């Protein structure tokens, strides 16, 4: 009897799965125009066949977030120009009414203000939510999730899309990309592909700067204000209360605070240990 074949076209049938062709080296900057002195960024080596939901989990660990809010990834559209404030407000009201099952009177759905503009993003990768399992949404900010939609922007579940599907697609290659976490505070992380590395099965943090930002601080400007509070020679009552909140109550609190230059402290070893244990 012929033996059981072990190879097809020179490739082994059995054994561990082959790794992807390469990893992507991603430089991720958190609100770079607003968060300065120091900036907060991380450089990650990411398996090419990881999904964007995997990347979300890796970024949560790398940046020290608490995974309590919604997220999405967007490939930015350079042709898109933000509408004026009145048009944006009207479109938001229309979206909210549709979301609640109320049909806006006198509105032509196919020709509303936003549907006449270019897509806001070339692609949006979203967190898939099962209303049967999460009737109120996954994140505490889930009520804002539909406000991020644009009628002409294609959407796909982040868990179904691999990094190499986007980074190797001619439509998206070289385009600016972002990861937004918390649709209330709008923590926007700019993502750039800096290069490639040998294939691995694991995420790894290679470099970075800046202490993890306080969850629910209120946005980038509030993080800047928190750092100023720690630098103040005589903090005000409001500043003392904010520092106390960060050290005792924030979901990603740091009991040691930010005094003495600790706004620059982060631990790559701890990040990589968590990536290894939790991914």
UniProtKB/TrEMBL annotation:
Superkingdom of origin organism: Eukaryota
Domain Plasmid pRiA4b Orf3-like: 35-248
Stored Gene3D superfamilies: MM3350-like (3.10.290.30)
InterPro entries to which the protein is assigned, alphabetical: MM3350-like_sf, Plasmid_pRiA4b_Orf3-like
Protein name per Swiss-Prot or TrEMBL: Plasmid pRiA4b ORF-3-like protein-domain-containing protein
